[in-house]
Specification:
The chain is mainly α. The chain contains 13 helices and 8 strands.
């Protein structure tokens, strides 16, 4: 498990794009002591460390000891088709990778998979994540680190109350465009509320990607309940209700991508195409070029 790996900084607009570009040019950009990344990127050393962390935590790049960074398939697709992270699909995938990364983005994983409160409160978050850490056999984590993680998650997803096109745009986190959190009632000590993602802008390829990605055992049929409620599932990570998840699946069935069946009272889906998760990932980005 890893906490506070981001040096207290949430993802800022432009950070991941710059990081990808630098890694593409030199895999050792972040590891070579002869390169002054603060000068190259024009930011402080702690921010450089944050970018380095997020490149790995979001699944854009892999860091290997002694070899520097290499771009993942996802990282290469983003650099080729969405270099400045402007497509909603890229933001969906960045969030998906963060929220499923139990090892290196533990608080993100906990927040979207294990923290069942829809009304977000710091005290309840701290109480529950401490129990989660203990149940996983980990040593006690300093409360300051957990509080910093909590604050960073809110800054990552909560919308900013400001005028558009201001100087503050550069301080925005692109993931707040997903709308997964809305501001709560501070008077009632509710810092935020979990909010369902707008399924009308969910690309069908990425819905299929996430469902197939979680089909670890490569089953022919997948229980709909697992897509709605299980950890790392589409419904869980995007705060979708059972009805919203059903609408997504109905849309996929209408487009001939899956078949929904009911056997002995259990609803399942079956893929009608022989494709892997990465097939859907590539299909999404290539489709963007054709638009």
């Amino acid at each position: 498990m890893k906490f506070r790996g981001y040096e207290t900084f949430y993802i800022r607009n432009g950070w991941l794009s710059k990081g990808l570009q630098k890694i593409k040019g030199n895999p050792r950009f972040f590891t070579d002591k002869n390169i002054d990344a603060t000068v190259e990127l024009g930011i402080g050393s702690n921010m450089v460390k944050a970018i380095r962390y997020y490149l790995s935590a979001t699944g854009l790049a892999l860091e290997e000891r002694g070899k520097g960074f290499s771009l993942t398939e996802f990282g290469n697709l983003v650099l080729k088709y969405d270099e400045y992270l402007q497509k909603i699909g890229t933001l969906i995938l960045l969030h998906y990778n963060l929220a499923t990364n139990k090892e290196n983005a533990t608080s993100w994983y906990f927040f979207f998979n294990e923290y069942y409160s829809t009304e977000v409160n710091k005290d309840s978050f701290l109480t529950q994540i401490k129990d989660f850490i203990k149940q996983n056999g980990e040593e006690e984590i300093a409360e300051r680190s957990l509080t910093d993680d909590y604050d960073c998650i809110l800054k990552t997803y909560l919308p900013k109350n400001k005028e558009k096109n201001s100087f503050e745009d550069n301080l925005e986190c692109p993931l707040n465009e997903l709308g997964l959190l809305v501001n709560g009632n501070k008077t009632l000590k509710i810092d935020a509320k979990k909010n369902s993602f707008n399924i009308n802008i969910l690309p069908e390829e990425l819905a299929l990607y996430i469902i197939q990605k979680n089909n670890i055992e490569n089953q022919n049929e997948i229980k709909i309940s697992s897509i709605e409620k299980e950890k790392k599932s589409l419904g869980k990570l995007f705060n979708l209700s059972v009805i919203e998840t059903a609408e997504v699946l109905e849309n996929l069935e209408n487009k001939g991508k899956i078949k929904v069946t009911r056997t002995a009272g259990i609803e399942t889906i079956r893929f009608l195409e022989k494709k892997s998760a990465n097939d859907y990932l590539n299909e999404y980005y290539k489709k963007q070029v054709e638009k």
